[in-house]
What does this fold into?
Amino acid sequence: MSSSTTEKTISTGPVVDVTMPQMGVSVAEGTVVAWRVGVGDRIEAEQAICDISTDKIDTEVPAPAGGVVAEILVPVGETVEVGTVLARLSVGGERAADGVSGAAVPPAPPAPTAPTTPAAPPARAAPGNGRRYSPVVSRIAAEHGIDLSTVAGTGRNGRVRKQDVMALVDVDGGGEVSTAAAAADEPPMHIESPYRPDPAPPPAAAAAPVAEIADGGLSRMRRLIGERMRQSLQTAATCTTWIEVDMSRVEAARARLGVTALAFVARATIDALREHPALNAWLNGDDYARVADVNLGIAVSLGEDGLIVPVIHRAQELSVEGLAARIKELARRARARELTADDVLGGTFTITNPGQYGSIMATPIINQPQVGILDLEAVIKRPVVVTDGEGNDSIAIRPMTILGLSWDHRALDGALSAQFLATVKRRLEGLALS
Amino acid sequence: MAVMTYLQAISSALRDELRADERVLVMGEDIGVFGGAFKVTDGFVDEFGTDRVMDTPLAESAIIGCAIGAAVVGMRPVCEMQFADFISCGFDQLVNVAAKMHYRQSLAVPIVVRLPSGGGFSGGPFHSQNPEALFMHSPGIKVVAPSTAEDAKGLLHAAIHDPNPVCFMEHKHLYRRVKGEVAEGVYETPFSARVARAGSDLVVIAYGAMVEVALAATEDLDGASVEVLDLRSLVPLDEEAVLDSVARCSKVVIVDEANMTCAAGAQVAALIAEKAFEDLDGPVVRVATPDVPIPFSPPLEQAVLPGVDRVREACRELLDY
Amino acid sequence: MATETARPAGASGETAPPAEQEHLRLQDRIWLLRAMLLMRGIEARAMSLYRQGKVPGSFYDGYGQEAVSAGAAFAMAPEDRLCILHRDLAAHLIRGVTPARILSQYMGRAAGITRGRDGNVHFGDPRLGCVGMVSMLPDMMLVATGMAMAFKLRGEHRCALTWFGDGSTSRGDFHEAMNWAGVQRLPVVFVLENNQYAYSTPVDKQFAVDPVERAAAYGFAGLTVDGNDVEAMFDAAREARERAVAGGGPTLIEAVTMRMHGHAAHDDMKYVPKEQVEEWRRRDPVERQERRLRDLGVDVDAVRAAVGEEIEAAATEALAGPMPSDEDVLEGVFCEGEAEPLGDGQAPWSGFARAGGEV
It folds into this structure.
């Protein structure tokens, strides 16, 4: 586009783009043959504003809306790709009405979730302490007499990749390397590090993905989290419902037991899930399945690296103290990168707890394919209206929190989510005082 | 050497063949005076006349059947299906009459069926299909699918010279978007695969329009060395080239624009599983159009067709594995 | 020519055949009988082999319809091309396929025309200008149309001929072929072999209007012929061929006949009224030609005896032949060398010999 055209810009109000139309499935470009209007001209919707020529036919381009020609961006004689903006129309405070022609269609609604191709089956821990190895890794190891249990893996969940075992072949000089290029691009940092006390980590403790900062880009973990979160929002019909809870009794009880409020919330949540099993479920496409066990995911922040959600399996079998201990242990192992694949798989419901930093409300994103996630924020002392046994109201200072439940409207409705929250509230406020 | 679009390369091959071999004729709907729905035979009538650039009745079964008849008495017909989708109306003639002829009675059927295929243009369910796998499953038909202008011309020459029925899958998306240097005159591109870009960490196996997608998706993939193998020919399938790439790269992503189930890529995946098991360092990953008709509306169509993002993500996932 | 049909004669108003045939010499008329006798005899022998367990799969014959293929094929020149249907064995015999190869074909033996790759009557000898049929009927109408298209494009004095049944007229390929041939005025002869039944389906469930009338709608000639009169069949095909090679376009010949056996060997034909079979038995095409020749003083019994001997010798030869080796069962899916077009067939009609190098 030439500068002479942009100088003639008129800018008033909303604009509608006029684009080079596609005049046949294989047509990629078109040439502006003539402009029938000039900048500043007032035009009607459907009025022909320019003539174009394509490989297939010559035609005119009708205005997608009435208004004033604000800019002409493609001069006569210039050939541009289909979709290129030819001109902008100022439509004077009103968006083009419905029925706008193809040149200025509103942005398409988000596409239904693109069918994803699972690149790999979910990482799965082998029975016992054994790891599974790919055919090529097994073959190279056998050819070079390498004990794979001593090899550190750089793949997902510590999986030993071809380049890991090839690096050993190179280091050991254990034979000719027919596919030397395979390992050349990724220096085997872990293996060469002088700080490593042991040649390999224990096989059973496959490391959680370790974030590696790419030059100027997101770490692999950040990228993964981003992708999962985006995917969840595209997949689920996410709604968030909040409820206010008086945490007086929780505060008293936790002081007594020496555990965090999270453990009480977890227990109350498990009870509520048993009462409303519709929320303890997985929804994959149209496949909706309630799960008998409550496998409770607890989001654990790993600081700048991201977060991970270890799972307390069969959480319904644990007391508040038991839950507190498991949460503590899982958080420690998560931060020490000691979680195994089993530790992060199979969750049926998740609790996230960023409230420790003082925030009071959030809209969490559902951990797919679960149908709900509970958000626990800060417990803050606030004046509230309390009613005594005789029905007398007074204002009191109470430790309050706001619980947020993000739920998938595909799986359930608002009434159920509210009932679920009310159950959690009832259980937290009704804790025995003893 | 001249720079041509993919479409011009196809036209050029047809024109060269019509000039060089009086047995060659092109036949199809609206290909004569109008020059074809995609203008592949634009202007041909003026040079070769209406007999050799034949406007046929709207009858796909008849186009294929008459081509078979002409072929067995010495002609070299090149049929155009207006869209690949319409081959369903000529399916019987192609798979029952043409494909089985040589095996049954040693009678060769040298015909070429040009199939403008593929989606991405809001063609909807009946102007977007990739039916190549149907013919891979019919012994006796060769199937080729060029991705570049140079190969489009060379493969079409080779197809016309071939003594067997050949389905020539020409992708509509590539017609005017792909350009390249194309040699003058008649030359043959072999029915074998081509390494579009050499690499060593992972190989993307594709054909037709998906080669371009594969190249774009893996151009800069966090520094990984990604090979792209352009199959070019589906029947015969260049097993050696596939196995060679897998042996070097050990990780494989196979991309089809066709619907997933039993697509060409499924055959490639099966081949790798059977003959390259010990070379694999990860699951064989497929990216293809899910098993739905190709929807019309752009966001819906884009949601199902394999694009650069999906291929890139699949490669990333597998590289991380 | 006669129109001794199942229905009232068509509008052609043709009369009974003359005692002397303008285009057929005595040797030709004997040839026609011989072809029909060979067909009937080979099929009878094959049926007995079938019952003896020597013929795998199913077995189809053309008992009672011999005149349709014999008469039409006899009118075809060596350079003409034929797509032959499954009840038209006489056409193969006239083109030059030997009885021993046919019996070998039925038995799936190595010496069969398809070397065991296809069965029963699914064959055509490409060297003799014939394309073997496929089971999807009438696919070969289009192949014949395409051959005729090539002849016309190249300006050749040849035609293509194909047979198809009454059931075939219901399918789209019938329309596509008739239409294409009409639009391009191609030198093709369509022989509609109306034998009253498509498997068990009678013609009144197949079409509301006699398909011969459709020819006019496609813009070319259509006529109904007594399909049980071999000389009438010959005449109709000869005239159609003349029209074709003269640029007069296609012809649809409806040969009215009767399938006297079941669809295949397993079919007892219960669905056919006995009277209908009896009526058609009186019009047997072989007996009719024998009567004709006896009246002309021909020793028909000697012809019969010679044919019988030929068939027995063929059966002996075929039975002695090996089954195909499975060594090359995967070979030949594709042609590896040059594509060889169809060759010329035998054409015993004296008319071609008389014409000498003209054809």
User: Anything to note?
Assistant: The CA atoms of residues 40 and 276 of chain A lie 63 Å apart. Residues 220-235 of chain A form the longest helix (16 residues).
